[in-house]
Amino acid sequence: MTLMLFTGAVQAQEVNQKNPYEMIQDVAMRTFDRIKDNQASIKNNPEQMRTIMKEELLPYIDYKFAAYKVLGKYASKVERDELQEFVKVFREYLITTYAVAMNYYDDQEVVFEPASDVGDASYVVVRAIVKDPNRPEIKVAFKVRKDSKTNEWGAFDMVAEGISLLDSKRSEFESIIRQEGIQKVIDLMQSKIDNPVELEKEMDLKESA
Fold first, then answer.
1. Which Pfam family, any one of them, does this sequence belong to (predicted)?
2. Beta strand extents in the chain (DSSP E only)
């Protein structure tokens, strides 16, 4: 498979949410470049990673859809106010999760697969490889869906080396919801949000999330 090298400085132009491949590459470029340019300050103050994720990634993440996917069958079984609270807290939880997961990046080469014809599709997977001369390559993929009302694309899951962030969270939360209720999961997520960001130079979504 031919891959597209992902390099270059952050561009001032708007992100094109009408094309999922362009959107993911543009957002990734802005995010990775900002991390690279602020390595020293991030090391001294890891909380900056949360700010970067909130400003660069979150606007292009369909966190509501992601929250519903994580809840699975329980999304239709919990009270409306609990569901709204879960989505609200899950939004902040994603920011924290990506702040830790994305810290593996420190100026590696990132290559994306070339764009394909989307056609009438409402769901695509955008794949990439993170290349590091000192560490094994990391295969990542971003699952993206199109909003039927706005026709704009938004990412809802990241898969690293075959590990889906949403699948791992759904597996973890399901037993807790079944045994202790959704409020327990909300409290656990809030606890993670309230704790300082601890950065590790490993790409392990299960541990970092």
1. MlaC
2. 4-6, 109-112, 123-132, 135-146, 153-160, 163-164
**Identity (one letter) of the amino acid at 155?**
A
Cβ(58)–Cβ(91) below 8 Å: yes
Query: pLDDT digit string (tens) for 122-145?
Result: 999 999 998 888 888 889 999 999
The backbone region for 181, taken as left when phi is positive above 0, alpha when psi lies in -120 to 50, beta otherwise, is left
What is the spatial order of strands in the sheet that 123-132 belongs to? Answer: 4-6, 109-112, 123-132, 135-146, 153-160, 163-164
pTM, rounded to two decimals: 0.84
Q: Is the CB of residue 123 less than 8 Å from the CB of residue 143?
A: yes
Cα dihedral 154, 159, 113, 200 in deg (nearest 10): 100
* Eight-state DSSP code of residue 56: I
Whole-angstrom CA distances from 31 to 50, 71, 72 are 11, 28, 29
CA distances in angstroms from 203 to 116, 162, 208, listed in the order given: 27, 12, 8
Burial class (CB in 10 A: 0-12, 13-18, 19+), 144: buried
